[in-house]
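Retro notes, item 3 of 5
We never archived the inputs for the adenosine-5'-triphosphate complex last cycle. Fixing that now. Sequence and ligand:
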Amino acid sequence: MADGANDEAVGDNPEQAPSEEVVGDVPSPKKAKRKSAAAAAAAGKRKSKRASTLKKEASKKAVDKEQHAPDPPESEAYSEIKEQLNQRYSLGRIPEAVKTTSFAKQDLEVGRNPKVLLSKKSSILASSDDPFATREGKTLLWRDINMVLSGKKDGEKDRYLLEGVWGEVPQRKTTAIMGPSGAGKTSLLNILAGRAASRGRVSIQSEIRLNNYVVDPKKIEVRQHIAFVAQDDSLQVTATPRESIYFSAKLRLPKDTPEKTLIKLTNKMLQELGLEKCADTFVGGALLKGISGGERKRTSIGVELVVKPAMVFLDEPTSGLDSFSAMQVCRVLQKVAHAGSSVLFTIHQPASDIFNQFDQLILLNRGRVMYQGAVDDIEPYFQQRGHPLPPRYNPADWIMTVAQSVPWEELISCGFFPEDKRHLPDPDTEIFVDGKDASGHHSDEMDDKSYIRAGILTQVHLLYSREIRNITRDKASIGARFGLTIFLAVLIGIIFLDVGNTDKAKPQNLQSHFGALIMVVLMSMFGTAQPALLAFPEERPVFLREYSTSHYSVVAYFMARLSMEASLTALQVLLLLTIDYFLISLNGPFGIMYIAVYALAMSSTALAVLLGCAVEDPKLGQEMLPILFVPQMLFAGFFVVPELIPVWLRWARYLCSLTWAIRIIMVEEFGNGCGGGEADAACERVLNSVGASEDETWWNWLILIGLFVVFRLGALFILRQKALKFY
Ligand SMILES: Nc1ncnc2c1ncn2[C@@H]1O[C@H](COP(=O)(O)OP(=O)(O)OP(=O)(O)O)[C@@H](O)[C@H]1O
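Structure as it came back at the time:
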């Protein structure tokens, strides 16, 4: 960080003289000189602004005093490290950037003895019902971030979307990223949050340090340390704001957090964000009317803030909010920062009262850092470079006007775009190497087991309850699912009414009986697998957000969905088979027939889930439906006998659950005799045509169950890979 910003960062004392230097290369003027040179109106305005700044600092100080116990005496470890730092830099003091970022006293102690602070954090998180309780923050700093878009054709120039970007998010500060549209704000935020990676024509290089541990934020264990609120809200449509916030608190706070603390935290969060009136209304979505867009945005913020995160990143948290709500959100972010968190967000042209709430600003222009430092230092910084803030002008508007209207060459020649002058210590040196792993692994700092969150059973239970709640609230879709099942079951039953009792010696009767069975099994597959195929692509944004912010494990999510699908499928198959068994007058024992149809439905659902996990878009999921069913029908042996299928393709039938299920069902239906004589011989021929034999029934069961297990494990694997690679 540049000097001016550092002064601000360390100078919490309201009595302290304003920083004398501003960020960058150009020497800074004295504030007094600036005051006297300004016009009377401007001076008056600045005075009041300064007064408000001092007031802000004073209140910050008061909050700090109230929330933070006095520092313990300097530890031996800290003194020793400070001494080594002094020797290394030969500056007689630790550089400010270092002091305010990676090597603040507590950070060094975390590096040395992380357990002490982490256990302290655990007890604070578990016991306090204040969402703004003091927490152990983290400092994120970065340098040399480049994002390059390579030219499409040979000879076409590469374009820098971000170039040499540097900066930091200090603890206990709010840091805003501003800049004209296309300046690279979202790209920078995404890179820092591990949500962007080199891909296609875009390549990204970066050096990012978390408490001076060089980390790769793309790694899930690093990402899970950062509470992230994306621009587009991905909340469960049928949950209410209260349920969404509680769900996050229950799963992410230590598992010994008392229930009443969770409820109090939720209520306080709702109150702080002005969500009390709509706390029990559905969040809603495209097909379900719910709370407003602004309320949804604030709910997303509440979901992240309720867990008292050490670091919070937000992409345009105030977009779509009216000025009152925007101010409310900024105040909440300020409170979170004062509690110890590092808060970073992108924002578009804030109103001046909102802008003045921020502590730090990173101004990007065409992918480069035009300013980085304290908000209070912006005015002298721009004045020094020949663009003083006009009287009664919103500073946020002014800096954007300068960034957009002044010619690029002039901005450069005026001394904007300061170089990164920080002297960051080498993270590979002995002092800082403790527990460090460039990938973020095995570092105490990255130790995600700093406290025990809800166990896997609680996760499954909460997720399962949420799924069931989702289904019961989404009456239209559950009504359609069961309504259609009943309608089609009755239709099939009426069309094949009593065919089970006809004389099988007549080929047309046997064919109808066989057709009735095929219709029932196909119906059980279609009716259950189709919703399962579409479920994951539709839930994907919510799952990825929750997984990447450490709500639950992939296995817990998977188990909860499996339990929910198993319950729904059991009910659906029961309805279908009960209606058709009696209308068609099937002959096989009801229990075994039910289990066989259920096993087929579950196995088809498993394949559907596998495909659903592999696609990202619900529309693509719809298109995949034929792939799910057509091969099954082709290879099962009832449309075409396997001998007529080309040899090199015959193996495919072994992967079709329908092949094995139909054999089991046929044996139960026709294997116990069809009335003797010619009828028995006809039934035998039917069994042979699908390769069914009573002796192989156990094998058929085993393979059917095996396919279910393989498809499910495949889906779990794909889901995990997707979740880990989420960009
Ligand atoms: N994957 C990508 N491929 C090509 N260009 C990209 C990619 N990602 C970002 N860009 C380009 O990088 C530039 C910065 O984009 P970014 O979304 O970060 O800007 P922004 O400052 O957040 O803009 P806005 O304020 O309009 O949201 C834009 O010109 C954008 O088109």
